[in-house]
Every structure is written in C-alpha cells, then in structure tokens.
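Design review, sub-item: ligand-bound model
Attendees: FS, YL, KQ
YL presented the inputs for the 2'-deoxyguanosine-5'-monophosphate complex:
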Amino acid sequence: MKTYDDNNIFAKILRGEIPNDTVYEDDHVLAFRDINPQAPVHVLVIPKGAYVDMTDFSANASDAELTAYFRALAKIANLLGVEDDGYRLISNTGKNGEQDVPHLHVHIAGGRRLRRMLQPSED
Ligand code: DGP
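KQ shared the predicted structure:
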C-alpha cells in the first residue's frame, strides 16, 4: 500500500496553507479550479480524507466518504454547467497514469469538445 504524503500540494490546500478557487465544498469533498486549465471548465474534485489515489480510496474510504464523493462529482458537473453538453472525468493513478499529485483527485473537464483520449507515450 502506498503511504500518504502529508506535504503534497492538495493536503496543503485542504489545510488552508495554499489558496484555491473553490467551486464546491461539503463535509467530505472539496472542488476547486485547476491552476493549469486544459479546457474552459477544468475543476479538481478531492476527498478531504487522506487517500493517495482511487485504488486507496475505493479500498479504504468509509461508505459515507465514498457516497459523498461520487454524489458530489455529478452535482459539481451540474453546478459548472457542463452536464448537458457532456464532460470528461479523469483520475490519473500512479506512474503510468501520470499522476503528479499523490492525493486522489478527479478532473472534471468540459466546456468544449475534447479530443479523443490516450495519446501514445512520448518516451
Ligand atoms: P495529475 O497530473 O492528474 O496529478 O493532476 C494534477 C493537477 O493539479 C494538474 O492539472 C495541475 C493541478 N495543480 C497542481 N498544483 C496546483 C495548485 O497548487 N493549485 C491548483 N488549483 N491546481 C494545482
């Protein structure tokens, strides 16, 4: 099992040590705009609990955390106004998934037609 790093950037955001542009918050979930948006709408949705990635979260989160998280994803897409035209949810996991920040996050990307996924690796 991967060890959670308390010093990752999203842990610092959750502790209020780094500012963020919050779009949604409840007891279990925080959603904020990505600092480097790849689409007109690009929001990161994170659980408040300390989970490295989706593997960790799905195995170890409580039922309340799991329910809150997945309900929030759809609610936030609706709040962002991307529900009708569609959007993409992405959760990069681990090295091959190109996960940069080791705190579970799902990207909500939309607001334009997105390219097809999974370009070949450059290396
Ligand atoms: P990933 O590669 O899936 O781990 O995505 C990490 C995302 O986090 C990336 O799209 C950029 C975003 N990001 C990194 N640091 C910050 C930050 O300090 N604030 C915000 N809002 N987003 C950040």
